[in-house]
């Protein structure tokens, strides 16, 4: 047990299907697609509205924050084993205040649920205290490199305070923001998980350094997921099973590694083995509505 891990946090880890192998098959989660825009541009990221793709960044429709409690209630009627209300996009959860508004409403009505946030970390420090007060006890931060030269090959641009930062300058800003945000959430008592997209030829030799660095920042678990080739990386070959296993073993020298990720949609609902999001959302037909900054 770490210095900041209380009995409450240990219980949270055991009930969260994306933080504990033991909880993975029994407990469910609902993702609330309330966050429409992003404040960085990654070369592998393509957000969309549809009802068939099974990957992050995709939802059937946008949800207004005020709709969140009713949707959670409906989801619990269908799947009482849901223990987590999460927000993971389709854009970045902190690029607007929509996620914070939704969490406050959900926490008021369902205080026993674990509120969980996924973010790129650019604005995590800024909203850390507000998130904690809104019941967010678990946070996932996507950290694809802790070296600006490597991250610049993955993240094209960072949008911050009305300015656009490209290349290594933008990468340095993002890495420093991630460090401060992870340190802040960890100090508050949150369980911080790191998501790293494994990209052959770009960051596959960098995993050990990422794991050691984020551990020092306060992260307590890591999830390494294979690249889904799309957008500017559509022609990059995803890692094979051997490369993925090697990366996970390297990371495990520093942090426990979660090995059951399902590449969930931004509107996923149910358990890891049964998704019923189609019962909650109707496809809106909207496309190309995402923006940055």
What class do helices, strands and sheet pairing give?
Answer: alpha/beta
Tell me, briefly, the overall form: globular
CATH architectural label: Alpha-Beta Barrel
Tally of individual domains: 1
Can you summarize this structure?
The protein has a single domain, classed as Aldolase class I (TIM Barrel, Alpha-Beta Barrel). It is built from 8 helices and 13 strands.
Provide a descriptive summary of the structure in words:
This protein is of the alpha/beta class and 293 residues long. It has one domain (7-268): Aldolase class I (TIM Barrel, Alpha-Beta Barrel). It has 8 helices and 13 strands. Strand 6, helix 4 and strand 7 (136-142) form a beta-alpha-beta unit. Helix 4 (124-133) packs parallel to helix 6 (167-188) and helix 7 packs parallel to helix 8.
Layout of secondary structure:
Blueprint: H1 7-15, E1 28-31, E2 40-42, E3 48-49, E4 58-59, H2 68-78, E5 82-87, H3 98-109, E6 114-119, H4 124-133, E7 136-142, H5 148-151, E8 155-160, E9 163-166, H6 167-188, E10 191-198, H7 207-217, E11 221-226, H8 241-251, E12 257-258, E13 269-270
Parallel strand pairs: 1-5, 3-4, 5-6, 6-7, 7-10, 10-11, 11-12
Antiparallel strand pairs: 1-13, 2-8, 8-9
């Amino acid at each position: 047990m770490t210095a900041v891990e209380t009995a409450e946090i240990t219980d949270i880890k055991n009930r969260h299907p994306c933080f504990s192998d033991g909880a993975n098959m029994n407990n469910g989660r609902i993702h609330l697609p309330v966050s429409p825009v992003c404040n960085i541009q990654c070369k592998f990221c393509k957000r969309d509205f549809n009802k068939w793709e099974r990957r992050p960044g995709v939802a059937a429709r946008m949800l207004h924050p005020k709709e969140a409690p009713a949707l959670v209630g409906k989801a619990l009627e269908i799947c009482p084993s849901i223990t987590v209300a999460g927000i993971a996009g389709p854009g970045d959860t902190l690029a607007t205040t929509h996620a914070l508004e939704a969490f406050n409403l959900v926490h008021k009505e369902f205080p026993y649920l674990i509120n969980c946030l996924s973010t790129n970390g650019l604005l995590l420090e800024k909203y850390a205290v507000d998130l904690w007060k809104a019941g967010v006890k678990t946070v996932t931060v996507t950290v694809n490199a802790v070296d600006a030269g490597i991250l610049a090959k993955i993240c094209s641009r960072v949008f911050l305070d009305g300015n656009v930062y490209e290349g290594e300058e933008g990468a340095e800003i993002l890495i420093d923001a991630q460090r401060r945000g992870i340190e802040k959430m960890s100090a508050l008592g949150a369980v911080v998980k790191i998501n790293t997209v494994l990209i052959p030829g770009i960051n596959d030799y960098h995993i050990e350094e990422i794991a050691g660095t984020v551990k020092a920042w306060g992260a307590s678990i890591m999830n390494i997921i294979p690249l889904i080739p799309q957008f500017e990386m559509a022609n990059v070959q995803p890692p094979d099973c051997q490369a993925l296993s090697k990366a996970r073993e390297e990371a495990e020298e520093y942090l426990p590694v979660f090995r059951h990720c399902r590449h969930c949609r931004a509107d996923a609902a149910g358990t890891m083995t049964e998704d019923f999001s189609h019962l909650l959302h109707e496809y809106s037909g909207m496309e190309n509505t995402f923006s940055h900054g």
